[in-house]
Design brief:
Blueprint: H1 2-14, E1 30-39, E2 46-50, E3 60-65, E4 68-73, H2 76-93, E5 96-104, E6 110-116, H3 124-136, E7 141-145, E8 147-148, E9 151-152, H4 161-164, E10 168-169, H5 173-182, E11 195-198, E12 201-205, H6 210-222, E13 226-233, H7 238-241, H8 268-284, E14 289-293, H9 300-303, H10 306-315, H11 320-337, E15 341-345, E16 368-371, H12 379-385, E17 390-392, H13 395-398, H14 407-411, E18 427-434, H15 442-449, H16 452-461, H17 469-485, E19 497-504, E20 509-516, E21 523-526, E22 544-546, E23 550-558, E24 561-562, E25 567-571, E26 580-583, E27 616-618, E28 622-633, E29 636-643, E30 654-660, E31 670-673, E32 684-691, E33 695-704, E34 710-717
Parallel strand pairs: 2-4, 6-7, 6-18, 7-13, 13-14, 14-15, 15-16, 16-17, 17-18
Antiparallel strand pairs: 1-5, 3-4, 3-5, 8-9, 10-12, 11-12, 19-20, 20-22, 21-23, 23-24, 23-25, 26-28, 27-34, 28-33, 29-32, 29-34, 30-31, 30-33
Helix pairs in contact: 3-6, 8-11
Bound molecules: acetamide.
């Protein structure tokens, strides 16, 4: 028996391994498997050379053959990447390695992680560990948000009070939330190493000495990771203004309406002070880039200040956004004089467009911009059209402080590809960013960063043709053992089960396809609304086809039971599915456009939240015509609406429906009146339905909105 087994195994090996079999993350550009394996003990020497003439920056070629281990690399970073690939192959195969050649190089130059050290503090040891992790995934930038309203974390010798006072705080609201949550959820423990007693006060905080930061920079440099310091200005500077209130426009150091009171752009002493700080920052960090924030600057105190208004007049500025750009440009000029490049958050592009005649107040085009405001339309396009390099960290999906964000969204993030080819050279890459308000300890930070940063590593390194979601998930299952062995507290509970829905017009059915972050999940489902059990059908990867109205309930099975949360969706292939909808009067509100013209006939029903992307919102009355494509018998119309009066969402006063065979002559309208009181609280979802008679191709619907928002998700025609 054993012999038969080994013969089978041997013949499998001699057939050669598939490229997808090597567990390397991020997956290489090209893997050529040769026949057979080679025995290369750990002590086997490596033949290595640098060939700066290789085609791509940081490229490497790794060959494992009977001759041994051969590495050629374009740079010392490329050499490190080759060794990392070798280490991952060794972890999989031990000393009996597949004969192969890997040719590899990064798709994007900026592959990073941001840590917010201000809101909560991390030990130097933890930062070094993140450098190791970045290097393991062939990433190369660690962006440290070192200063903010909640704490100043970098020693500045000229202004010792910045850390003596600014690095320590009495528990703030965020700490209190963590402390309260900790009572039920131990993972929220506020790291006790950063809590100190000072007389009768308990303080939270910490800072890095210059010596510590230099050691971090050196540690990172050895691993080809650049540390990018961020000193946020002119907003998010309460740690400064609490000590130097004279640097704000009004002398106030308080909290404003939404953000803290910023520094004044009209005071020369502010620039002198900041330049002194930046001198020390540049002395510690040899990085090509210095990040100066420039996000979320509340300008109310600038409006109140005669000095600011005079400066605006003198410069001919019309907006306070232009005044912000003026501030940023002055800092930018200073950094450039010192041979550095500046990065700022994308808020700083609002000052104007230098290409517009008379467009004063534009951010200097040589400033790099970090894109984060994902909800503001067209920001990446504007950034590159104005000539800036761009680094992508859009809040959705790259802000990872919410631990339940899907891995899928990062792995498949499209934004970088939407920049036109002619401007692609301005795309530096991207990063995941971890804001620290609820990062009360490093385990929680780990939990938020991993494994999503692993997905980002592959997104930013591997070209589209080599990226493979299923292959990635399989490699990630193996990688999780590595993460555990390296004491990384990665999340195990990201979005488990997601579904894609489509209509099949030929077979007249709805199709549902499931996806999961597990490589080989046991997904069970029912069509009768009951909770799936081990005797329910197993989802086999093929779409589930639903012809009659059904409630699909699905779950991943774990230890014999359905794992929460269950996936529940009503599916119905009715006559309007896939029909064309014309909006003849008002359109939807831009903030609630759902799937735009496809919303009412895509067969997808919304959930309990009008913000779930399935409900379309209107602030006016509106009319639509549904074209069924051909004349057919119709017997019922039904359209769902939602009421939730606290945020101002109401049922329509009335819905009117009429039918036509030719699009000209319509039947008399049927009127469906609202019967839900506009005082009824809670979330109410109700169909407005009426019987229809005879035949129709066109169904005209008028929705009368007399109050607030009206939301609907689907027009059903049976
Ligand atoms: C930011 O999230 N305020 C850049």
């Amino acid at each position: 028996m054993r012999n038969i087994l080994s013969i089978i195994l041997l013949s499998l090996v001699s057939l050669g391994l598939r490229a997808g079999d090597i567990h390397v993350i991020p997956y290489p550009v090209q893997v050529e498997m040769q026949r057979g394996t080679v025995r290369l003990p750990l002590s086997a020497p490596e033949s290595v050379r640098i060939d700066a003439g290789m085609a791509h920056a940081d490229e490497y070629r790794l060959t494992l053959s009977r001759k041994g281990i051969d590495i050629v690399a374009q740079s010392t970073a490329g050499l490190q990447y080759a060794r990392e690939t070798l280490a991952q192959i060794r972890a999989q195969y031990g000393e009996e390695l597949p004969a192969l050649t890997v040719t590899d190089y990064p798709r994007y130059e900026w592959r990073g992680l941001m840590l917010d050290c201000s809101r909560h503090f991390y030990s130097l040891e933890y930062l070094k560990k993140q450098v190791d992790m970045l290097a393991h995934y062939k990433m190369n930038r660690l962006h440290l948000h070192l200063t903010d309203d909640q704490g100043w974390r970098i020693e500045i010798k000229r202004y010792p009070e910045l850390t003596q006072r600014g690095a320590w705080r009495t528990f703030n609201q965020q700490d209190s939330i963590c402390i309260d949550t900790y009572k039920d959820q131990p993972e929220f423990e506020l790291d006790p190493r950063f809590i100190v007693r000072n007389g009768d006060r308990t303080l939270y905080g910490g800072y890095y000495t210059q010596e510590e930061l230099r050691s971090l920079v050196a540690y990172a440099r050895e691993r080809h990771v650049e540390i990018i310091p961020e000193i946020d200005m002119p907003g998010h500077t309460q740690a400064i203004s609490a000590i130097y209130p004279q640097f704000t426009a009004t002398g106030e150091a308080s909290w404003g309406t939404i953000f803290s009171v910023p520094l004044s752009p009209a005071k020369e002493e502010v620039y002198t002070f900041l330049q002194h700080i930046l001198d020390e920052v540049m002395d510690i960090f040899p990085s090509h880039y210095i990040h100066i924030g420039a996000d979320e600057v509340e300008k109310n105190t600038w409006r109140e200040s005669a000095e600011c208004r005079q400066l605006m007049d003198r410069l001919g500025f019309k907006t306070y956004e232009a005044l912000q750009s003026y501030f940023v440009n002055r800092i930018h000029d200073y950094l450039q004089q010192k041979g550095r490049e500046m990065i700022c958050w994308d808020d700083a592009i609002e000052g104007g467009d230098y290409q517009v005649p008379g467009g004063k107040g534009a951010l200097s085009p040589s400033a790099d911009v970090m894109y984060w405001r994902y909800w503001v339309g067209g920001v990446p396009q504007r950034v590159v059209e104005q000539g800036h390099h761009i680094i992508f960290t859009p809040g959705d999906p790259m802000y990872v402080a919410r631990p339940d964000g899907p891995l899928y969204d990062i792995y498949h993030y499209q934004g970088l590809d939407l920049i036109p080819d002619s401007l692609q050279h301005l795309v530096r890459g991207g990063q995941v960013s971890l804001w620290g308000e609820s990062m009360s300890n490093f385990r929680r930070a780990d939990y938020c960063i991993y494994p999503r940063m692993v997905a980002l590593a592959e997104r930013l390194w591997t070209p589209a043709a080599q990226r493979n979601w299923q292959g990635f998930k399989e490699r990630l299952e193996v990688e999780k053992a590595w993460l555990t062995a390296h004491d990384v507290h990665y999340a195990r509970t990201n979005a488990l089960l997601t579904a894609m829905q489509a209509a099949d017009k030929e077979r007249k059915c709805m199709l549902l396809t499931f996806d999961s972050e597990y490589a080989d999940p046991d997904i069970r489902y029912t069509l009768d609304g009951t909770v799936p059990t081990l005797s329910s059908p197993r989802y086999d990867g093929q779409p589930i086809a639903v012809t009659e109205p059904r409630t699909v309930t699905a779950a991943i099975m774990e230890n014999g039971t359905a794992r929460e949360p269950l996936f529940v969706r009503e599916l119905e292939y009715h006559k309007a599915v896939g029909a064309t909808v014309s909006y003849t009067t008002a359109r939807w509100h831009e903030s609630y456009k759902a799937a735009e013209v496809a919303t009412f006939t895509d067969g997808r029903r919304g959930g309990d939240s009008y913000g779930d992307g399935l409900w379309q919102g209107f602030t006016r009355s509106f009319d639509v015509v549904v074209d069924l494509g051909s004349v057919m018998p119709v017997r019922e119309f039904s359209m769902r609406f939602m009421q939730n009066i606290d945020p101002g969402v109401y049922m329509p006063a009335v819905v009117e429906v009429s039918c036509s065979e030719d699009g000209n002559a319509y039947t008399a309208a049927k009127t469906i009146a609202n019967d839900t009181p506009d005082t009824q609280k809670g979330t109410i979802i109700k169909p407005f339905a009426t019987p229809l008679e005879g035949q129709a191709r066109y169904v005209k619907v008028h929705v009368e909105n007399t109050k607030g928002f009206v939301f609907s998700d689907e027009i059903v025609i049976r």
